[in-house]
Structures are given as C-alpha cells and as structure tokens.
Design goal:
The protein has two helices and no strands. By secondary structure, it is mainly α. The longest helix is centred in the last third of the chain and has 11 residues.
Length: about 80
C-alpha cells in the first residue's frame, strides 16, 4: 500500500450509528436481503449483549469495537 499511495495511506475512516430495532425477529432475513435484490453476505444471525461484541470480532478490530461498546452502552441501557 505504501508504494501505491506514495506513503499516504492511513486506512479507512469509519462512522458508527446507533439504531434501535423495533420489529420482530422474523422480519430479519439475512438469506435474502432486500427481498432477494441483494446477494446474501451472512448465513445466520443472532442477538448478543453489546458487551460481548469485542470478543466476537477478529483481534485487529477489537480496539474499535471496545470503543464503540463504551460509547454506545448508555444508549443500550447498559453500563460498561
């Protein structure tokens, strides 16, 4: 990446948003997203307590997820 971008590569910038799902679990369809208009990216899904998320992600992304959990914990009604 250093040669391609002449040493100016700094990685990706991410923005995180908190949203509350108010529907029913059976409304979530990862096998046929968008009613079949999109290729499936996932095979299955499950709800997890937010505090568990950093342990479920690949190690190099954990610091980002730890920060997101800390910042969003009040919105989820939990304190970390």
């Amino acid at each position: 990446a250093g040669r391609t971008w002449k040493g100016r590569y700094r990685g990706q910038r991410q923005k995180w948003f908190a949203m509350r799902f108010t529907g029913e679990d059976d409304e979530i369809n990862v096998a046929s997203p968008g009613g079949g208009g999109h290729k499936a990216e996932f095979v299955t899904w499950r709800w997890e307590p937010m505090k568990n998320l950093p342990e479920l992600i690949v190690p190099f992304k954990r610091p980002v997820y730890e920060r997101v959990v800390k910042e969003f914990s009040a919105l989820a009604g939990t304190r970390i």
